[in-house]
Write a structure and sequence with these properties.
Blueprint lengths: L1 E7 L3 H18 L2 E6 L6 H11 L3 E5 L6 H10 L5 E4 L4 E2 L2 H13 L5 E6 L9 E3 L2 H12 L5 E4 H6 L2 H4 L5 H12 L5 E11 L16 H14 L7 H14 L5 H10 L4 H14 L4 H9 L2 H15 L7
Parallel strand pairs: 1-2, 1-4, 2-3, 6-9
Antiparallel strand pairs: 4-8, 5-9, 6-8, 7-9
Helix pairs in contact: 1-2, 5-8, 5-10, 9-10, 9-12, 11-13, 11-14, 12-13
Length: 320
């Protein structure tokens, strides 16, 4: 009834810990763990071999060449032969309570096209509900659906989804789902607000947030904007704009704090703001004059303020 599909690349230690953290509950419910290794150059294959000797639930494939993350997610989903497949990033954790709840929901509604679960309790509203309106879904949950670990696919989406159209977009898993739902006449989507996917807490390895990347503005603003505006015409412009801004808020990229941190890291500069200002202003509700000022503001006062806040609030990860 349910499988877990994991696309991975050069994160052997995290993958090992991920399987270790889930194997007991997977054995309880006979849930297969399907791994698409994107031609890793570390010891990912050794980790997979180790687990395959211990359990028949772990299945895998290895790409001959490294493909885009979107295509690797597609290949991971393609390994599934069950009615539903949970697409899981290799740095996320599914609690036993969450899996118990989802399996019960699947048993109660086996015609559901898609299950969406919360991400670390980020969304308090809307409360859990059924969606039949794809436009309302995009407006309400588009931001959270960018996290691939929040989505549980019906086999029809995997079989009929327009994966090729969204390869290289950085949001392919989301695009496939949204396009499928926009074309399907009768929709049945379940939003689960009270249960969340969590970050996987490795005892040694600290998860590296993608917002630390030098490509953060390209991916989080330009790629995101181009992706949302490329969605089918069955989605209204007003809902696309809401979706753009919800992602900026939920990811913390397009908030005042997000812009200050990007300035501190050297990602937001006078030059980068000029290059991406159209996309930045579409994704953010922060007044453009403030973003412009942040982009030219000296880094040292921000760094001092950040250290003071960290000390006062005792939040070690306040400044990344």
């Amino acid at each position: 009834m349910l499988s877990i599909a994991i696309p991975t690349y050069n994160r052997a230690d995290l993958l090992d810990f991920l399987i270790q953290s889930h194997i007991e509950i997977c054995e309880k419910y006979n849930i297969q763990i399907l791994i698409s290794d994107n031609s890793s150059t570390d010891n990912t294959q050794e980790i997979i071999d180790k687990w395959q000797k211990q359990t028949t639930l772990v299945k895998s494939t290895r790409n001959k060449i490294t493909v885009s993350p979107d295509q690797n997610a597609e290949l991971a989903l393609g390994l599934s032969s069950t009615k539903y497949t949970w697409l899981l990033g290799d740095s996320y954790f599914l609690s036993e309570d969450l899996i118990d709840y989802v399996i019960e929901e699947i048993n109660n509604n086996q015609k559901c096209d898609l299950f969406i679960v919360n991400l670390e309790g980020m969304l308090s509203i809307p409360e859990s509900k059924f969606y039949t309106d794809h436009n309302q879904l995009l407006a309400d949950l588009g931001g959270i659906m960018t996290c691939l670990s929040c989505l549980i696919f019906h086999e029809n989406i995997i079989e009929k989804g327009a994966f090729e159209r969204y390869r290289g977009s950085r949001y392919g898993h989301f695009g496939v789902v949204i396009e499928y739902l926009g074309q399907k006449k009768a929709k049945n989507i379940t939003w689960i607000q009270e249960h969340s996917v969590q970050s996987l807490r490795h005892p040694i390895i600290k998860k590296k947030n993608w917002s630390l990347s030098s490509e953060v503005i390209e991916v989080g603003f330009r790629n995101w904007t181009n992706f949302v505006f490329s969605l089918p015409h069955t989605y209204l412009l007003q809902n696309k704009v809401i979706c753009l801004k919800n992602f900026g808020r939920l990811s913390n990229l397009a908030t005042l704090r997000g812009f200050l941190l990007m300035r501190l890291r050297g990602q937001l500069t006078n030059e980068s703001y000029k290059e991406y200002k159209s996309e930045i202003n579409l994704v953010s509700n922060v007044p453009r004059v403030i973003i412009r000022l942040i982009s030219i503001f000296p880094k040292w006062p921000i760094k001092i303020a950040c250290k003071i806040a960290t000390k006062n609030l005792d939040k070690k990860d306040l400044c990344l």
